[in-house]
Specification:
With about 500 residues, this protein is α+β, with helices and mostly antiparallel strands. The protein has 3 domains: about 130 residues, no CATH class; about 150 residues, GAF domain (Beta-Lactamase); about 160 residues, Reverse transcriptase/Diguanylate cyclase domain (Alpha-Beta Plaits), CATH 3.30.70. Helices cover about 60% and strands about 15% of the residues. The protein contains 13 helices and 13 strands. The radius of gyration is 54 Å and the shape is rod-shaped.
């Protein structure tokens, strides 16, 4: 009953002001008829007015249309009883019932129209809400797309800046540091571990670098299991030579036998491929499942490609420097680079007042030996002498192939007495060497000129020329000896 009253209230509330007045006036008609009849039969019309108009007005003003409709129905019933009690003719009763039926018919018709309008309005409102929802979803999607694009822009900006920095980097360790730092700052995965493993074939060992987070310093860690080439994840990348992406290692059948303490949950690794040669790998890992997405793997692949190019660039740079400073046959410094270094050492020796000696060395009768046994044997002799020179001096000393069969050695922080001992040791070692040529034992000797720096020398060529004068004396006095420039002391 309460539900029906609520529905009636909603219908009445949907009526406009004109429709409400029609219902009120229509409902008042029977009571007016009853009052009229009562007046004709000497009744009191004020009773009818009090029974209908006053409650109806109060109901409309104080209670609203629903309560007024209920009250009107009660009063109409009383009016009908009044008509029947006074014995009015049938037409009067019929008129009352007809007016009552017409009133409620109009009320029903108008409320039905109001229901349709309310339904249409509700439907329009729902469609409007759906449109707003679609717009909100579209906005959120656009916002997410914008944020994703911003992240991509930031990442590829970092990649571009890294490329610029690496173009000015000429040391392998600097390349490693730049790569690891940029990768860790670019991805910033919570709890992420970023590793780089390089294979240095020239020295037959592995270089390892790992950076654990943005706010820690890059460290070199050689004893961590994850940085070994035989680590299961690393071994897979090394064997397959292609990227590895793992969203949940616990459900990956390829790595079920990994010890629990060594297990990671998410991992992305990419190889550093120099052509068909594997130079190393870069690896990102996390203890969380699904920490990396497929686009992270693609971006890491770009970092790997850039790292490979940079490492090749560094190798090419050092190779170029080596070709410019190292003699291809003997592995000794070339003359131009050697003279620059001698000039620097002269300045240092004069500034700090320490001893500096230089020797010029020439293979005796090398042209004749070369003509007799051929250039290949001659090259072998030059390599042998060069190796003796390198083995006879310290790492800080400089050894150069000065030209043809001539060599020069700069002995740093070495007085003349020590230089004489080194020169004599070199001469004896060369003399003791036996060179096998088609079963025939041959040998060579060297002549050595030696000079010591003094305050009057500030030019590298003048200093070397002084030792060259000692070499000329050694040759003139019979070769296979050490002679001092501007000194009478000889050693045979």
């Amino acid at each position: 009953m309460l539900k029906k009253l609520l529905q009636t209230h909603e219908k009445l509330e949907s009526l406009n002001q004109y429709q409400r007045w029609v219902i009120v006036v229509g409902s008042a008609f029977p009571a007016m008829a009853a009052s009229y009849v009562a007046l004709q039969n000497d009744g009191d019309v004020l009773i009818g007015l009090f029974m209908f108009y006053v409650p109806v007005v109060l109901s409309v003003v104080l209670l609203g249309m629903v309560e007024t409709a209920v009250l009107t129905g009660v009063l109409a019933l009383i009016a009908m009883i009044n008509l029947l009690s006074v014995g009015q003719p049938v037409w009067m009763l019929g008129l009352f019932l007809a007016s009552l039926a017409l009133n409620y018919y109009l009320w029903f018709t108008w409320t039905e129209e109001s229901d349709i309008k309310a339904f249409q309005l509700k439907k329009t409102f729902e469609e409007f809400e759906l449109s707003i929802t679609d717009l909100r979803l579209a906005h959120e999607k656009t916002e997410l797309s914008y944020q994703a694009n911003q992240i991509k822009i930031q990442r590829y900006t970092a990649l571009n800046e890294l490329a610029r920095s690496l173009a000015l980097t000429f040391k392998t360790q600097d390349v490693v540091k730049l790569l690891i730092e940029t990768i860790s700052k670019t991805f910033m995965v919570p709890g992420g571990v970023y590793s780089l493993l390089l294979f240095d074939s020239s020295v037959g060992k592995e270089m390892h670098a790992v950076r654990y987070s943005v706010d820690t310093e890059m460290e070199v860690r050689l004893n961590r299991e994850r940085l070994h080439a035989d680590n299961p994840f690393n071994a897979w990348v090394i064997a397959q030579k292609k990227p590895l992406v793992i969203h949940d290692a616990s459900s990956d059948f390829r790595f079920q036998n990994i010890p629990e303490e060594s297990r990671v949950q998410s991992l992305v690794a990419g190889p550093l491929m120099g052509g068909h040669e594997l130079m190393g790998l870069i690896r990102m890992e996390s203890s969380a499942v699904n920490a990396f997405r497929q686009e992270d793997a693609r971006l890491l692949s770009n970092f790997c490609d850039l790292g490979t190019v940079s490492l090749e660039h560094v190798a090419l740079y050092h190779q170029t420097i080596e070709l410019a400073t190292i003699d291809g046959l003997t592995g000794l410094y070339v003359v131009r680079y050697y003279k620059d270094r001698v000039r620097d050492e002269i300045f240092r020796a004069l500034e700090h007042k320490f001893s500096l000696c230089v020797m010029m060395i020439d293979v005796d009768h090398f042209k004749k030996y070369n003509d007799n046994y051929g250039h290949l044997i001659g090259d072998k002799v030059l390599k042998l002498v060069a190796q003796i020179l390198k083995d006879s001096v310290r790492v800080v000393d400089l050894v150069s192939r000065y030209g043809g069969e001539e060599f020069s050695v700069l002995l740093v922080k070495t007085p003349m007495e020590g230089a004489l001992q080194v020169a004599e040791r070199i001469r004896q070692k060369v003399q003791e060497q036996e060179i096998d040529v088609a079963g025939q034992k041959t040998g060579v000797t060297v002549s050595i000129g030696l000079a010591e720096l003094n305050a009057g020398f500030k030019d590298a060529e003048a200093f070397i020329d002084l030792a060259d004068q000692g070499l000329y004396r050694a040759k003139a006095e019979g070769r296979n000896r050490v002679c001092l420039a501007k000194s009478g002391r000889d050693h045979e």
